[in-house]
Write a structure and sequence with these properties.
The protein is an alpha+beta fold. Helix content is 29%, strand content 21%. Strands 4, 5, 6, 13, 14, 15, 16, 17 and 18 form a 9-stranded mixed sheet that branches.
């Protein structure tokens, strides 16, 4: 939207962006063979997959086209592969083929001996989901958008020219609303009397392994999909870790992000059926994400039937991450049907990566250290993140106000020790940059204070 001469603001419910499903997901750029032909999921998956490499390059976000494999372990699942191949062709996906058992083992030596073959999608990829979200918001802010943290919407009133939106931080008058409220999109719709869809919650638990295990599979390895989703996956991440998950549990509470003994045990059991000797001894953390799905069993994208100035972007479950760039273009189109959009001549699609020091050559590192000594001070030893990068993350758009916010931008705290050594130093840098007491710094906003007070 900031490509056009519009006044744009983002109301964020949490203390940072990417704290919901945008941050806690598998980070997969899906090829597009799984969604039912003719659905919005199929349409925007294919379009978004084609856009993703360019978008990530422009925004300085890590992306890798590593290809994906859907492995079959039974005769019935082999038939599923043929169904997926035909569906992918109908959806317009290129580069699909079925690998024999021998070809599969050559591609993935650690796969279970029970594997019989696989569907290969050469256009499948991986991306950093929270990095992409942060970069997109940062680029929007650099191009004039305003961001308001801790601004949960509490009421909306239709006016002659649009809406009056009341949030926990104030009131805003606006001509249009893009309802991209995730799990709570139906609540936002209900504020204008639109009950045309409902959003339900499905929790997925994950296990993350250390970078020493990032080699274990080369491709994104899926089990065969079921009615509840694509099943679990085992995949390298763009940062070199190995991710396993997610489970799929329909839950009543949209706030339930707790991992469970049963969920993780089930995940370990199912992953053990897919590959041989998964190196779980290298696990560094587990987490859960809650994804939204609608009662329409498809994306909900379009103008509200109650007030067309509210554009719904709801029920964006998988392949939502892949579809996001294409959905954004559709939102612009829907708004353009109701008002003239004039190009923003100062718009720039480019953004430097948040954490970049380790990617530089020795000469460039030395030059940067000479200009700013903070880049010579390593704060996170696991990931090699410098004080300069952390200061940059706190000060640039969108600002990181919490230690988790710094972690998502720089990876300080994402290594094997999970912040055990660097978190106190990161908190001190946040307090210094923001000019607040150290006791006011939180891990993830609200009441997640790191310190209770001083002992002396």
């Amino acid at each position: 939207l900031t490509r056009y001469r519009l006044k744009v603001c983002i109301l964020e419910r949490e203390s940072d962006v990417a704290m919901g499903a945008s941050g806690a997901n598998s980070g997969i750029a899906h090829a597009g063979f799984d969604a039912d032909t003719g659905t919005l999921k199929a349409k925007y998956n294919l379009l978004g997959a084609g856009m993703m490499p360019r978008v990530c390059e422009e925004l300085g976000v890590k992306y890798r086209r590593n290809g994906s494999l859907v492995a079959a372990y039974t005769e019935e699942e082999e038939e599923t592969l043929r169904i997926l191949l035909a569906r992918g062709a109908a959806n317009g996906v290129q580069g699909l083929s079925i690998l024999s058992r021998e070809e599969l083992f050559a591609a993935e030596p650690n796969i279970s001996e029970a594997a019989r073959g696989a569907l290969y999608a050469e256009t499948g990829g991986i991306v950093c989901p929270y990095g992409l979200t942060i970069a997109a918001v940062g680029n929007a802010m650099d191009n004039g958008a305003d961001l308001f943290y801790d601004s949960e919407v509490t009421a909306i009133r239709s006016t002659a020219d649009g809406f009056l939106v009341r949030s926990k931080t104030g009131e805003i008058e606006t001509r249009f609303i893009v309802n991209a409220a995730g799990l709570f999109a139906d609540r936002i719709a209900g504020m204008i009397g639109d009950a045309s869809f409902q959003v339900h919650a499905r929790k997925g638990e994950y296990i993350l392994l250390d970078k020493s295990s990032g080699y274990y599979v080369r491709h994104t390895l899926f089990g065969c999909p079921t009615k509840r989703g694509k099943g679990i996956l085992i995949s390298p991440t763009v940062d070199g870790n190995l991710i396993v998950g997610p489970t799929a549990e329909e839950i009543d509470s949209k706030e339930d992000k707790a991992t469970t003994a049963n969920g993780l045990s089930d995940l370990i059991r199912r992953a053990g059926q897919m590959v041989k000797d998964l190196p779980l001894q290298n696990t560094i953390t587990s987490f859960a994400g809650v994804r939204a799905f609608s009662d329409r069993h498809d994306f909900v994208i379009g103008a509200s039937g109650v007030n067309a100035r509210m554009i719904h972007v709801a029920g964006i479950e998988s392949p939502g991450l892949t579809s996001a760039p294409a959905i954004a273009e559709e939102v612009v189109r829907l708004i353009s049907l109701q008002t003239e959009l004039k190009p923003n001549e100062d718009f720039s699609p480019y953004r430097r990566a948040d954490s970049y020091f380790q990617s530089l050559g020795a000469a460039e590192k030395n030059r940067l250290i000479a200009e700013n000594g903070d880049f010579g001070k390593v704060i996170c030893r696991c990931e090699g993140i410098t004080r300069g990068e952390i200061v940059d993350a706190v000060l640039r758009n969108p600002p990181a106000n919490t230690t988790d916010g710094v972690k998502r931008r720089t990876r300080a705290g994402m290594g094997r020790c999970q912040g055990g050594f660097c978190q106190p130093s990161v908190a001190e840098i946040i307090a210094e940059c923001r000019g607040i007491p150290l006791t006011d710094v939180t891990k993830c906003g609200k009441h997640s204070y790191l310190l209770e007070g001083r002992t002396k």
